Amino acid sequence: MSDVRPRIRLPRSAKAGDVVEVKTLISHNMETGQRRDGSGNVIPRQIINRFTCEYAGKMVVDMEMHPAISANPYVEFDVKVEESAEFVFTWYDDDGSVYSETQAFEVG
Amino acid sequence: MLTRRDTMALGLGVAAVAMVPGVASASAIEDAISAFTGGAAVTDGGVTINAPEIAENGNTVPIEVEAAGAVSIMMLAAGNPTPGVATFNFGEGAGTSRAATRIRLGGTQDVIAIARLADGSFARGAVEVKVTIGGCGG
Question: Which of A48, A56, B41, B137 could form a disulfide with A35 if both were Cys (CB 3.0 to 4.6 A apart)?
Answer without folding.
Answer: B137
